[in-house]
Amino acid sequence: MLNFTFKNQTEILFGKGQIKEAKSRLPQDARVLLLYGGGSIKRNGVYD
Description:
- With 48 residues, this protein is mainly alpha-helical.
- The protein has helices spanning 18-25, 40-43.
């Protein structure tokens, strides 16, 4: 493996109401990666 440096300034929000909080922190042109399983993210409207 080649030597490398990986710098990742990731902010992770936990807890109730954090979906709305995350939305207010994102720039309009932000690219977001959503990781989920089981389909609940689609059932509760977060994916939309």
